[in-house]
């Protein structure tokens, strides 16, 4: 008879690691199973061109309360990056250049129109269903539908689309309009703070330092390179199958990305409400790219709707005068940036005059253990799926940033979800 753990956690991203720590705090036996040969999931601190980079999630913020509390606990330092000196944007085939605040004044007109009424339908952003009957009107729309409702000049429309594409990581026909409203409301109802929470503050030693601080706080048995294939609820326990083992636990928390849940067989099958949500999935299919360039004389930020990496900004200055830029696109299939000729051509259509030296990216969409970037929910998610996915099923709970109440799609949402799941385990064990 195999050992029965108090808890098996499936998935070693921030959500799974936090849940495992919480459950282990009272001495419970916890086993953490991770498919990859590393922890961290959609965060991945690495080194490229002698520079520490984050292939996945990287930016943190003091307005992300769960992340910030963990940063404080771990005593980690952050860097705050300055506003880039110049900004450019495109209206049709015309490139315009100014300061960030001048461009944001144009963005803001469309942004505020897009978000009119959000204090009423999303008054408490950490409780997205608080007024779901009001939220459902916006929830029925994609970001593209919502933009189509607005009366804007060509320039206002061009910058609004580019701005929202940069946070959607998906074509705007697929991204739910609520995704924009949630980020805005979580950022105190301000465009400026929305940009700040998603792009200015980094951990000096990388996200891996925060992940390890959480993971190392309690001794949790951890198995890497162990994908879970099936989960069966039996009488009084749960059976977890991996490629090489059959394991048992009193409870199981599954903290894998929403878009990978269909790869696990559940017995009994999950209820139809959850199956519908899993089939719907989340919409992100974008890219995050790093491009080293020669010829930059200032720090820059550039946006262009529909471009292969239509949000691009200076991130690192190199001692040799080169810069490393970070870019985001809405379709990972649109370009392979390691093809430097294609990347040069694309860069010329965004910021002319720079020479591409090298480029890198990780394809999170092709990655079988991610199948997406950060969670961008489709139209209808909050009205139809959010509550159903968060409901426990007997001895099983689904978790992860993609299902979080607050900063879903962020590290903060993953930690929130891990804390929630840990509380569920402890209260279920005591029940
Ligand atoms: C390109 C990119 C940029 C981002 N930028 C930011 C940012 O700047 N700031 C921010 O806060 N957030 C950002 N995010 C989002 C953030 O990284 C995620 O929301 C968060 O890390 C998700 O944590 P999680 O634990 O819920 O899921 P994950 O990190 O995806 O962890 C789930 C784990 O489950 C494992 N797994 C999957 N299937 C199985 C299986 N069958 N068996 C066992 N294990 C399995 C996976 O390997 C993974 O380790 C970004 C994400 C990406 C991809």
Question: Can you describe what's shown?
Answer:
With 431 residues, the chain is of the alpha/beta class. Among the domains are: 4-42 and 206-282 and 375-430, FAD/NAD(P)-binding domain (3-Layer(bba) Sandwich), CATH 3.50.50; 100-197, Polyamine Oxidase, Chain A, domain 2 (Alpha-Beta Complex). Helix content is 33%, strand content 23%. It is built from 15 helices and 19 strands. The strands form 4 sheets. Strands 1, 2, 9, 10, 11, 12, 13 and 19 form an 8-stranded mixed beta sheet that branches. A 7-stranded mixed beta sheet has the order 7-6-15-16-17-14-18. A two-stranded antiparallel ribbon has the order 3-4. The protein is globular, with a radius of gyration of 22 Å. The two termini are 26 Å apart. Flavin-adenine dinucleotide binds at residues 10-16, 33-36, 41-43, 56-59, 227-228, 255-257, 260, 263-264, 288, 364, 369-370, 373-374, 400-401, 409-412, 414.
Compose a concise summary of this entry.
With 431 residues, this protein is of the alpha/beta class. The chain has helices spanning 14-24, 65-74, 100-114, 118-121, 132-139, 143-148, 154-168, 177-186, 191-197, 207-215, 272-280, 340-348, 381-384, 386-390, 411-430; strands at 4-10, 30-33, 45-48, 51-54, 78-80, 86-91, 94-98, 201-203, 221-223, 228-234, 237-242, 246-254, 265-267, 287-294, 300-303, 311-317, 323-329, 355-361, 396-398. It binds flavin-adenine dinucleotide.
């Amino acid at each position: 008879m195999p050992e029965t753990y108090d808890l098996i956690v499936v998935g070693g991203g921030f959500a799974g690691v936090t849940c495992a720590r919480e459950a282990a705090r009272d001495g419970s036996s916890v086993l953490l199973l991770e498919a990859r040969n590393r922890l961290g999931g959609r965060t991945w601190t690495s080194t490229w061109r002698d520079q520490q980079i984050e292939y996945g999630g990287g930016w943190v913020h003091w307005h992300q309360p769960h992340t910030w509390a963990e940063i404080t606990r771990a005593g980690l330092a952050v860097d705050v990056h300055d506003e880039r000196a110049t900004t450019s944007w495109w209206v049709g085939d015309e490139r315009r250049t100014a300061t960030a605040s001048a461009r944001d004044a144009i963005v803001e007109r469309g942004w505020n129109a897009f978000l009119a009424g959000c204090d009423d339908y999303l008054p408490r952003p950490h409780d997205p269903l608080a007024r779901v009957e009001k939220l459902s009107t916006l929830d029925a729309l994609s970001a593209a539908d919502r933009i189509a409702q607005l009366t804007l000049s060509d320039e206002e429309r061009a910058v609004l689309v580019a701005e929202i594409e940069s946070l959607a990581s998906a074509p705007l026909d697929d991204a739910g309009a609520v995704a924009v409203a949630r980020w805005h409301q979580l950022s105190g109802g301000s465009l400026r703070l929305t940009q700040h929470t998603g792009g200015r503050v980094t951990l000096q030693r990388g996200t891996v330092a925060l992940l390890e601080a959480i993971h190392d706080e309690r001794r949790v048995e951890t198995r890497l390179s162990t994908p879970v294939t099936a989960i069966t609820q039996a009488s009084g326990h749960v059976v977890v199958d991996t490629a090489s083992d059959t394991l048992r636990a009193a409870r199981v928390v599954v903290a894998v990305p929403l878009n990978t849940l269909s790869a696990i067989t559940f017995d009994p099958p999950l209820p139809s409400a959850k199956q519908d949500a899993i089939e719907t999935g989340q919409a992100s299919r974008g890219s995050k790219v790093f491009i080293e360039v020669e010829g930059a004389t200032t720090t820059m930020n550039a946006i262009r709707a529909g471009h292969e990496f239509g949000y691009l900004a200076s991130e690192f200055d190199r001692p040799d005068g080169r810069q490393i830029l970070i870019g985001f696109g809405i379709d990972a299939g649109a370009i392979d940036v390691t093809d430097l000729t294609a990347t040069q051509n694309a860069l010329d259509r965004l910021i002319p005059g720079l020479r591409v030296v090298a480029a890198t990216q990780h394809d999170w969409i092709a990655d079988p253990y991610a199948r997406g970037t950060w969670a961008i929910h489709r139209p209808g998610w909050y009205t139809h799926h959010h509550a159903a996915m968060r409901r426990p099923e007997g001895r099983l709970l689904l978790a992860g940033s993609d299902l979080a109440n607050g900063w879903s799609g962020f590290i903060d949402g993953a930690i929130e979800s891990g804390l929630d799941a840990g509380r569920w385990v402890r209260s279920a064990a005591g029940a």
